[in-house]
């Protein structure tokens, strides 16, 4: 799976999905790409043994968190000043998500109004293209300072400067 990275999105300190200082977090990196002719957000998590449910399988709640975060962040491709706050998330688990193989989470917007947006996401195995989990979701658009305050944006939300994969 090779795509041109258009932009690398910010990360935070302690988010369970993207927090780079969260020892138990997924430390997911987010890249804005074009996939199948549409703007898409690609997430690349760093799954660990602590993220398992059954041996070598990612916990279903974390699968949901990855899909939710990736779809919800897709709105930032169009407008960095907006975040998605989840209203509804529907998941379909198709195959186990392994902890010992790289996975990619893809999310994109399917419908949008001035106040809300809807999207879809999937977790895939890049080696085979298999879709392991799929989600649809609906979000309310809000500026980040209304969600977490100005302090967060100035102290805990920053560019991801790690080398690209």
Q: How would you describe this protein?
A:
- The protein has three helices and nine strands, in the order ββββαββββααβ.
- It is α+β, with helices and mostly antiparallel strands.
- The strands form two sheets. Strands 1-3-4-6-7-8-5 form a seven-stranded antiparallel sheet.
- The chain is globular.
- The termini are close together.
- The model has no long low-confidence stretch (mean pLDDT 94).
Taking all residues together, what is the mean pLDDT?
Answer: 94
State the order of secondary-structure elements, H for helix, E for strand. EEEEHEEEEHHE
Rg, Cα atoms, Å: 15 Å
Give the % helix.
Answer: 10-25%
Share of residues in strands:
35-45%
- What is the first-to-last residue Cα distance? 12 Å
Strand order of the largest sheet: 1-3-4-6-7-8-5
What structural class do the secondary elements suggest? alpha+beta
Major sheet, described briefly?
7 strands, antiparallel
Ranges where pLDDT stays below 50 over 5 or more residues in a row are none
Specify the overall morphology: globular
SS summary, helix count: 3
Instruction: Give the oligomeric state of the chains in this entry, treating copies of one chain as homo and distinct chains as hetero.
Output: single chain
